[in-house]
């Protein structure tokens, strides 16, 4: 069995030389059986070697680190944006004091998070380039020269934060949990002793549900990042993945997959750490992700 | 005689039931007062409004469409405040021929006002212990820290270390073994009885003027119940505590209370000193009190593990507006002479002895 296609950049060369093609295939190790290729890739991986890009020839690992950091900035930043929107709305509506305000805010958030992220991205670009002329349409990215273009830097983060589709779910989950916790006996008792109910409901009512949602939503946000990086020309992993997929640059794709898996598990790990920190006994019987 | 610490007058706490489109009159015109160093026991069956009475005093009734009226006068440090002062401004009630037609409540304003009134009172002047100590303690915070929090909030100690030290002393006072080790335990690691001791320590650590104990022994094993009552008795002597004790258990009342208020269907039906009411010579008692006392198992029955005799019939529905006596359906003692009156109009509180009041037509005779 052979791989579906060979590196595009090679075969699309105008003077396609079959002999040369075979030679390069051998050089890249693509002439071996697929099982052998996989095992040797695994073996390399164990030794910390992610292989080299077919396209650039540079080691995948250093390439990944470079773009991975950008993607992390984008995902973590957008996660913060999501939480900044979702958490206050959930808190306000869990108090049931201002029904109209909370109803309005919730509706607003639901509509926002129903917007597809690519559409939101193009809309944002359209508004900021065409209407306000704040930066050129095809910008080179956030950094032009030595100056950081803050707006261009923040825009994708905000767009992904709004458009990753998890705002509504975070609001729903957090509000349900918070309402439950606020009606617990121990909150009533805390109130009776004159203490702050927020101090007492923070761990079970906010920290645990938020971490649970963050862990559950990390994969979706990563998925959204691929789109946003494309739309905004953000030099991250998503764009690299896109490019690599077009180029059939397998080592890069494999590396990115591993990297994404690690990020997803970091989300899970953070949840475990928070639960352990909060109280091991309770988190067992408490919420399960 | 000293001035009462707490004087509740005509307290009414109603909730609105959307399902039944009517008010649930959980507390319906309750008056009582507590003097310094006294234990007032409120007793009555489940659902008669005991907890809501206590929660109204504590400002813990927060449900939106509820209304609270009357006055709750709290005297401490030489001044008297009404804990319901100005709350009625946030509620507008439309009535027609005494029937409440509509009620509008500015919940946000009401809660804000209530918070202002209760600030400095909750936990400091009045503190409270609850029925299920295990669920009333924060499961995520070590018990020592929870007591220390109370101390730091109310006792002018701001250093945490010092507060933890004081917490250990309080744990010792409520007779917990090796208190300095227990400080770092989470509630899940402690038994129900231990948790209640912790609650008591926490409630008393601010040296409140009044302690409200809502069913402090319910939900605990019988042997533990006895120990907690014993502890409360001792602490009462040692610290000259003033306690509002709420229970459905006459035997707890018998052991701890100085004065009794018997509640039925949101109202107090009998009120007076325990020795007056329980005095075997006293030939007059409210039929409901008698029924409650009869439901207590005798020593023989406890030995034979016989079940508690329940009073026949159900607790009255507090939604219905009664014309006659609320206990009418279940009352065994109404005789031919009073029967008609019992059915048609509700008896007033009548003083039948010094400070002994009763709401029953029989008392008029
Ligand atoms: N938030 C609420 N909304 C509507 N009705 C309520 C609310 N809270 C309490 N009630 C009603 O008020 C009545 C009195 O309740 P309360 O908790 O004071 O009873 P209790 O005497 O303490 O009984 P128990 O022994 O069961 O604790 C009950 O019938 C209850 O259904
Ligand atoms: S008023 Fe009549 S019905 Fe009510 S308790 Fe007295 S005797 Fe019984
Ligand atoms: Mg109760």
Task: Summarize the entry for a quick read.
The complex is a heterodimer of chains A (289) and B (365). With 289 residues, chain A is an all-alpha fold. Chain A has helices spanning 8-11, 18-28, 34-46, 60-94, 99-114, 117-131, 150-163, 167-182, 185-192, 197-232, 237-247, 250-278, 280-285, and strands at residues 143-144, 147-148.
Write the topology of this structure.
The complex is a heterodimer of chains A (289) and B (365).
Chain A: H1 8-11, H2 18-28, H3 34-46, H4 60-94, H5 99-114, H6 117-131, E1 143-144, E2 147-148, H7 150-163, H8 167-182, H9 185-192, H10 197-232, H11 237-247, H12 250-278, H13 280-285
Antiparallel strand pairs in A: 1-2
Chain B: E1 4-17, E2 22-35, E3 39-43, H1 50-58, E4 67-76, E5 79-82, E6 91-96, E7 99-105, H2 107-118, E8 126-129, H3 133-136, H4 143-154, H5 160-173, H6 179-182, H7 192-204, E9 210-214, H8 222-239, E10 243-247, H9 250-256, E11 259-264, E12 267-273, H10 274-278, H11 287-294, H12 299-303, H13 336-344, E13 350-353, E14 356-358
Parallel strand pairs in B: 3-10, 3-11, 8-9, 9-10
Antiparallel strand pairs in B: 1-2, 1-4, 4-5, 6-7, 11-12, 12-14, 13-14
Helix pairs in contact in B: 4-5, 4-7, 5-7
Bound molecules: adenosine-5'-triphosphate, iron/sulfur cluster (SF4) and magnesium ion.
Iron/sulfur cluster binds at residues 287, 325, 327-328, 331, 333-334, 338, 342, 347, 360-362 of chain B.
